[in-house]
Amino acid sequence: MLKSPLRETVRMFMKTWAFVRSNLSRARSYKKDDDATQDEGQNNSTLCPNFSHYLYFLFAPTLVYRDEYPRSVVARITQHSLPQDWWNSTSYARFYRTWNCVVHDWLYEYVYRDIVSWQRQQGGGCSKLRCFPMMVVFFISSVVHEYILSFAFRFFYPVLLIMFGGFGVAFMFVNSKARQFNIFLWVTLIFGTGIIMCLYSMEWYARINCPPTFDGFLDYAVPRSLNCEFSN
Predict the structure, then answer these.
(1) Distance in angstroms (rounded) separating the CA atoms of residues 169 and 95
(2) Which residues lie below 8 Å from residue 220, measured CB to CB, with a gap of 6+?
(3) How far apart are CA 63 and CA 81, in angstroms?
(4) What is the Cα–Cα distance from 213 to 228, expressed in whole angstroms?
(5) Which parts pass through the membrane (predicted)?
(6) Secondary structure letter of residue 229 according to DSSP
(7) Which residues, at least 6 apart from 8, have a Cβ–Cβ distance to it below 8 Å?
(8) Residue 148: how many CB atoms within 10 A of its CB?
(9) 73: which residues sit within 8 A by CB, 6+ positions away?
(10) Helix, strand, or coil here: 228?
(11) How far apart are CA 140 and CA 231, in angstroms?
């Protein structure tokens, strides 16, 4: 199966990005005198962590890097990595926060907060675009999901990209704490999953039974089910 190696590749990329991003400021402020300070046995917090920190982080049940993980923190991280009660969500915002807590924390820590910080530095009208960081987070998440599916299925069919990056973003602006919204959430999830399964299945069997319309990369990128004549 191609899906597991692809998911592991994405996980390793997220781990590496978290490690580099968390230590970038310390690495840029590193000076040669810090080596002498470290040799004298003084604790200098500006020094970059050694490889053992990175190696431990690779096996830690989190995607957010910290220099140290006390046992109490590890216990909370392990519990936090488990699925929360997303099925009781009364808004899509809460559903996205509790559906995959580990990935949500990474996106919030290394994408959302960095963009918000950049907006504040720019000032002016840029800092007022509050929805811009959220749009970037959804775009990155949609592209990564589509990347995994495209290589696993061996064709590009951006159904999930449109459903998640389009309708999923639109539903984020529906603010409601009413319990009735939970019914709406479940109905849309059921219909959305059905549409995704049907369209990907149609494209899968079209790739098996229908001749290609284009050659090379276009055949990979253009859905074959659009030009395939299905017979009864």
Answers:
(1) 12
(2) 154, 155, 156
(3) 10
(4) 9
(5) 129-149, 155-174, 181-202
(6) -
(7) none
(8) 16
(9) 66
(10) coil
(11) 38
**Amino acid in the structure at residue 20:** V
Tokens coding 153: 């299925």
Beta-carbon contacts of 1 under 8 Å, excluding residues fewer than 6 positions away, are 152
In sequence order, the 6+-apart residues with CB closer than 8 A to the CB of 213 are 219, 222, 224, 227
> What is the rounded distance in angstroms from the CA atom of residue 71 to the CA atom of residue 45?
21
Q: How far apart are the first and last CA of the chain?
A: 32
From the number of C-beta atoms within 10 Å of its C-beta (0-12, 13-18, 19+), residue 169 rates as middle
The whole-model pTM stands at 0.78
Would you write out the chain's pLDDT as a tens digit for each of its 232 residues?
A: 444 788 888 989 999 999 999 888 777 776 665 555 555 544 445 567 888 888 888 888 888 998 877 666 555 555 555 556 888 888 888 888 888 888 999 999 999 999 988 888 877 666 567 788 888 999 999 899 888 888 888 899 999 888 888 888 888 887 777 778 889 999 999 999 999 999 999 999 999 888 888 888 888 888 888 887 765 5
